[in-house]
Amino acid sequence: MAKASAPMEIDDASLPSSTTDKGKSLFASDPKSAPWVEKYRPQSLADVAAHRDIIDTIDRLTSENRLPHLLLYGPPGTGKTSTILAVARKLYGAQYKNMILELNASDDRGIDVVRQQIQNFASARSLSFGTKSTVKLVLLDEADAMTKDAQFALRRVIEKHTKSTRFALICNHVNKIIPALQSRCTRFRFAPLDSSNIRERLEHVIKAEGLDVDQGGLTSLVRLSNGDMRKALNILQSTHMSSQHINEEAVYLCTGNPMPKDIEQIAYWLLNESFKSAFNYISDVKMRKGLALVDIVREVTMFVFKIKMPPTIRVKLINDLADIEYRLSFACNDKLQLGSLISTFTNARCALVAAV
After folding, report:
1. Dist CA 270 CA 279 (whole Å)
2. How many CB atoms lie within 10 A of CB 213?
3. 260-355: what CATH class?
4. Rg (Cα) of the chain, in Å, rounded?
5. In which residue ranges of the chain is pLDDT below 50?
6. pLDDT confidence of residue 129
């Protein structure tokens, strides 16, 4: 069979013999039952919610057949994988599944995966299916979970097959990617999404699903997402499954997060009550509402920014709260850490009185 010519300026033709189903699913078997994260995943670069400067740059490179190896990094749920899949659809059209090798490096993180699956895919000859490009694409999600040996092996594969294959690495922590790989890729940082972008996308999903969501519920969804679109959609879907009317209370009950009014009350106790009273009050609220102390500490930390106090006292208080949250992440005793939380605010109260 004659070898197909590649439309990209610097590449020769090549074609995969097979792909893998590992990693994020490219197709939902039943769109009606699919998680909304997948159901409403952007299908084109124009649909990606934010980062228009990055998206426009990648779109132009794709249109001009000059797509480089890519390294997309940033927090979860900011559109990294959606962007690469949209690029694949633009390059290959309906046949994009045949032209992609998609791996999740948190599962396939060793050197054998690079030497076998990736090497075999990149070196296989490919046939033209009438796609816009015959250059294959390797999508490696959570690449920062790869071992150092696997990353060095991947560097050699990229050098050897750069004419026939493009590599897209996705990660949360770019500092865990070896410099040799970083230098071979064009890097783009995906920052947490702006609240307006998340609100706009949520409104689209709410309208499409015909949901009953009031403004308080929508604001709560945006607030709890912390710039993570995936988290926002998952909370929305989970809340819808437990309540037909989605309001602020329903969202917080579904997620188990303390409501803002509860945090205000807890902050009042911490700033005004005695150690014993504050300990009893907070313990009672935790028990009745099923709250986790780590969530309380995290929300109280954010509340501290709203309180008027000298900068030096605020910094000290926030650092102490961060230490408590860190200890709780290692499953330290809740009662001891609650006592530490109250003591921290007691010290801050004394510092505030002395500063007056």
Report:
1. 9
2. 23
3. mainly alpha
4. 25
5. 1-29
6. 52
H runs (alpha helix) in the chain:
36-39, 52-63, 80-92, 111-113, 119-123, 148-160, 179-182, 195-209, 215-225, 229-242, 248-255, 260-272, 275-289, 293-304, 311-328, 334-355
- Which CATH architecture group holds 195-255? Orthogonal Bundle (1.10)
pLDDT at 233 (0 to 100)? 95
pTM: 0.79
Q: Which CATH number is associated with domain 36-189?
A: 3.40.50.300
d(CA 279, CA 341): 9
- Structure tokens of 75? 């927090």
Which residues make Cβ contacts (< 8 Å) with residue 109, sequence separation at least 6?
A: 145, 146, 147, 150
Residue 344 is encoded by which pair of tokens? Answer: 């921290």
Cβ pair 223, 58 in contact under 8 A? no
Judge contact between 118 and 154, C-beta under 8 A. yes
Quote the pLDDT of residue 162. Answer: 86
Same fold, 36-189 and 260-355: no
Amino acid at 278: A
Please give the pLDDT value at position 336.
94
Dmax (CA) for the chain in angstroms is 86
Cα 214 from Cα 163, distance rounded (Å): 53
| Predicted local distance difference test score (pLDDT) of residue 31 | 56
pLDDT value of residue 292: 92
Amino acid at 43: Q
- Tens-place pLDDT, residues 82-121: 999 999 999 888 878 888 888 886 666 667 777 778 888 8
CA gap 168, 62 in Å, rounded: 13
Q: Which residues pair with 138 in a beta bridge?
A: 101, 167
User: Domain residue spans in the chain?
Assistant: 36-189, 195-255, 260-355
From residue 53, alpha-carbon distances to 46, 65, 165, 200, 222 in Å are: 12, 19, 25, 18, 23
